[in-house]
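Objective 1.3, modelling of assemblies. Example input:
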Amino acid sequence: MNNIVYLDNSATTKPCVKAVEYINNALCENWGNPSSLHLMGMNAEIAVSEARGSVATFLHCREDEIFFTSCGTESNNTAIMSIKYKKHNGKRIITTAIEHPSVLEPIKALEKEGYEVIYLHPDKSGVISLEELKSNLNSDTCLVSIMLVNNEIGSIQPIIEAAELTKRIAPNALFHTDAVQAFGKLPINLQKTKIDLLSASGHKIHGPKGIGILYKRKGVNISPLLLGGGQEKNLRSGTECVPLICGLKGAIDEIGSAEKLYQKQKELFDYAHCKLCELDFIKFNSNSECIPYIINISVPGYRSEVLQHFLERKNIFVSSGSACAKGELSYVLREIEASAIEIDGALRLSFSRYNTNDDVDSFCSALCEAVSVLKKSI
Amino acid sequence: MKEIILIKNGELALKGMNRCNFEEILIKNIKQKISQLGNVSIRKAQSTIYIEPLDSDFDFEEALDRISCVFGIAAFSRAAVCEKDIDDISKKAVEYLKEQLSNVKTFKVESKRADKRFPLTSPEISKEIGGCLLATYPHLKVDVHNPDIVVNIEVRDYAAYIRAGQLHGAGGLPVGTAGKAAILISGGIDSPVAAYTMAKRGLLLDAIHFASPPYTSPRAEMKVRKLLSKVARYSGRIRLAIVPFTEIQDEIGKNCPEDYFTLIMRRMMMRISEKIANDTGNLALITGESLGQVASQTLPALVTTDYVVNMPVLRPLIGMDKEEIIKISRQIDAFETSILPYEDCCTVFTPKHPKTRPTLQSCVEAEANLDIDALIEKAIKETAFSFID
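Predicted structure (tokens):
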């Protein structure tokens, strides 16, 4: 497809050149099993170990704190479900009402097994209150799981402070963050935080699908979901997916510095924000304080599904919110008190480094056209 | 606010006339460690080294982390720079220590007035700054015996400095002040610790590893490289010699009595190591031997292996227990790598009942059928060199 305007990068991204190149190399040349004793095995092991090094450098942590999984969902599940096998006492789990389903569902499963779950509710800007977290932390707390960046509205949670609060009030509790929408976008320095577990994924940063990362701080012990050959230091059995691990390295190598990229994206984001402000028929669901990769707007009176299909005929691709929640009303937008009519007409624009100001212009003019051509649904 | 890193020299302050030389090497080593982090100006005065970053985005945490691995440093810390004026010191102390003081309950102020022209005495400075901090942060109490945090004020020649406590340096002497020696490294727990321990006394390092493919795998060699890279964080660049050892082991197997296999192997290793070490300017060999740990490390066994070389053999772990060695191994982050399960050349051809009380004469007889010189010459000729950073 030529000349597409892809503004759905929080759903997934186009694999970058290096990612494809590294995957290709691992599939065609370096296809050994890292566990094999022979040279083919060793070469594959070296490739995995180099990728682990890149991730560790990128996140400012130790190499032996990085574990490869199959996706963000698996990382989240491993982190959360491990609580079940912990001998220690606590029964309280604290999370937010706007987590991704891959966090909410395992937590619901634990709730059914007798854990007490506290859901923190965000304010209108989509950010939780540290005071509320503080008042809910107690010695019975075994897990706090708060996402770093929300996938629908891009709000950034104060997880550095939240992790510190957690460790101060409930030192035995594990602090987990789902950083899938933040990894590779917000500079993260794990050395300077008290985070125990962090989940990330490859395909949101121009890497391949099917590769996830779990960061586990040294000294934290958790149990695996999968039992088997003991790969990834027993935390994730199953032959390492060398091609996708290499692809992830390619994606990270192409980012280079997260700080520099952030500055560049901020310029595009500010431009988009400015242009969208000129459209008087939309309402912003996200605010300008959020991550400069996501803008969530509503076109009240128009169904987002219809708008999406109108836009796609012009080769413009956006989403109605989370790609995981096809058709359902967004619980995230409900949490930030958007009205039904606003939720119905919500569109999420999510950017990547490949987007340009022209993409924003194309979207804006197409949206204006949509509003003038389409009938109001209500 | 301008910040710097203050470094207190270790033992080298005692070195009399050589002190200047020692300090220069220390500064060179520090520079090498942190040069990639940006431009800095380095200055020394009164057994203190001042590192002043010239770029605004200087990564202090990373710099401190790297400095913690430099030998020859007793203590180091981040510090705020202020004018030699009590009002400026008070104002900056309040601001600079805000975060650290908010997390503690008790503190005390210790002051040092190196510049005697400063109008207040040390106790007066402490009293003034202490009072100021108490007034600003009412949750604090002074505890002179057991404070949560010690605030240091130092009035020196060019400026006054504020810091909250300091970190322990790596100790020892600057690498390069004691010459160079070669470590025999196998891939186990002991040899990296021995290497680290001798680098700590100021030695530059070369390393010699014996590889016996196919009895040992490429992974064993990779493991050695990884272990050396852990040591190199402290010692700086290491030149690694990999000596092919298969033929010698085969010959020993064919021509020598089984209970002498390990001893003769050790004697061959020492001979080869001495030659390689000599060629690359080393003054001594280093091994990770600990008395009585295994059959080849009994005193009679050490006598027979020592006898084949003229160079001194340094054995820093000779009087240590395994537990003590493991503690250091963990401390330098080598342990996890050391226990990876790959065969090394010492575990190949292990005799069932090794000699624990060999005599020199019996060793000479046991290796009588070996063409020692030819084997050594060939092994050295095929030795491959590389560098580990």
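The CA atoms of residues 244 and 323 of chain A lie 22 Å apart.
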